[in-house]
Amino acid sequence: MSIVRKTHKWASIFVGLQFLIWLGTGLYFNLMDHTKAAGHSYRAHLHPSLDWSSLQLQEPSAVLKDSAPSTRLKLIELAQKPYYLLNHERGLYAHFVNSYSLVDAVTGKAVSIDTDFARTLARDSYNGPGEIISVNLMEPPIADFLKQKNAAWQVNFNDEVNTSVYVEADSGRIVGHSDDDKRLADFFLKLHFMDYANQGSFNNLFMMLFAFVALFLSGTGLYWTVDLLKRGQYKIPLFAGKNRVNLFDSNQKNLGERAFSSHKNLLDGLVDHNIILPSTCGGGGTCGRCRIRLDQSVSATTADREHFSASELAQGYCLACQHFSDNVEKITLLETTAAKKYQLALVSSTFISPFIKELRFKALTKEPIEYKAGAFMRFMIPKGSGHSVPTSVPGELQAHWQEIVRKDYEHGACSRSYSLASIDALTQELVFVIKLQSAKEPSQLPGIGSNYLGNLSVGDRVEVLGPFEEFYAKHNSDKSMVLVGAGSGMAPLKALIEEQLTRYRDHQAGNPPRQLHFFYGARSEHDLIYLDYFYQLAKLYPQFHYYPILSRPDDAWLGATGYAQDVVALNWQQLLENGPPEFYLCGPKGLMADTIGLLGDKGVPQSHIAFDDFS
Known about the structure:
Blueprint: H1 2-31, H2 34-37, H3 60-65, E1 72-78, E2 81-89, E3 99-104, E4 110-111, H4 115-124, E5 132-138, E6 152-157, E7 164-168, E8 174-178, H5 180-192, H6 205-230, E9 242-248, E10 254-261, H7 266-271, E11 291-293, H8 302-307, H9 310-314, E12 317-319, E13 330-333, E14 340-351, E15 356-363, E16 376-381, E17 384-387, E18 408-411, E19 414-423, E20 429-435, H10 448-454, E21 461-468, E22 481-486, H11 490-506, E23 516-522, H12 531-540, E24 544-550, E25 560-561, H13 564-570, H14 572-575, E26 582-586, H15 589-601, E27 609-612
């Protein structure tokens, strides 16, 4: 035992020193000026200045014909002039290896970023007092931007912080600004992530070594703890207790005293009493929707501080998922919903793309479930075993799963939220569209909720809460609707489309059709779910316009290519033909961020944008 104690103490010194470094660098990150640390002291915010409608631009098809094979064509503005940016080799992110070329959008001539052009672009993005003193073409690795994998022009200014502006050599993209403040911040970041080999990543040898030492420290600490436990040094309660808590509604009406388990958070404890609070994060404290008010003496958590003001915290406002019934005498419900607890039985489970399943459930209740299109339900996933690859992948889809590591794993109980794609009017079956999430790394677990549901057999039952109605169409509006989605973001958008078309069909007399524009993005044609269904809807309803888009099409694809948000931009004038539209978004994080940014640049007010963020 003495050897364990000695090695534990020496390991703790090594870990402790790095923790002190983390503490110091973390304190710096909290106190620093984030604008300066990002190199933005003299970075100018560039805004579009061209009147695109007055320009006579070359046809994109002609540009593509005269250029090398491209995966993407984009119209951009550089130095107050229009250019076509062609991507010949595309990386996942802008800083990955990419191959670009520029074409003057007016003359159709190829353009390269030379020294003078780089000077102009750098000067446009700079608003400081300095003058350009040198311009250098840099090949990666670039010390100021280690993640940048493409060549860039370094344009240096003689201001007091030694600003350098980096312009990507092929595309003209401003990689970023760097100066003495940013270089100091990068140094502290290197210490914080133990990037002592200067790789620009926390996934390095030193971090791995630290992880092994920390694991050893944990193991010896556990061994030491067990030894102390055997000697009676610790007393651990074996069973969870019950706490009696008074419950009040938002009007301070006393709902009586209820018993709560001391081992369940209040969000799950309220479910035991058929009181359902909205939650999309499953108790992680990130969505901020399960709001309640407790005794003012209860300490606020980090998640509470993220979602409530200081005055609200002082009054006892908090998130139900972050607190337990210990030391709680009174719970005030701030928001009640019509959501209920249901038992669902699986009716069918069908692959509609290589990684997306359509799941149909039957509610084990006599009363039909009422909901607004766009609603979601919270699935209670029990503790159990999981499989990274479904047990029943059809033969024609087996090739898509070959690279997925087959892995059996154990997981704890949790909850996950999924949007309703529809409720079948004839069978009253609840339809969900769920993507089976695979692990990004072999050491990680795949999506627990999606793979659990994807591996259910017909007849299996699952408990759900809902429906929660937070993303829905404005029914008193006659504005055009623009719906933008990708992947399993299809589910709520499909429901919204069907709701609008059904509403028009049932009340067609005297009601002008509400224009619907549906932009749906996927990688390949295999991933375009419900393709024939939406084509058929477009034939039946003239007001419905369907735009399927592929980011990685094959040669046979004749439709739009690129990303959904880019095709929205290309069709902008058509979308405005019936006045300013409303926008409904659901999809991956990148699509949501880019589309919201596009709408902001176009001047679309926030009141005209609704989104269901499941990323």
